[in-house]
Amino acid sequence: MPDTTNDASNAWARTLESATEMAEQLRADGWEVVTVRAGHVAPEDPEHGDTDRFGFVYLAQGEVADDFRAAIADGEFDGYEAFSRRDGSDLFVLTRMTDADRRTAVLLVGSVNLAHAGDLAAAARERGEMYSHVVLLDGTHLGAFRHDDPDAFLPEDV
Question: What is the per-residue pLDDT across 88-107, written as a single tens digit (0 to 9) for each?
Answer without folding.
Answer: 999 999 999 999 999 999 99
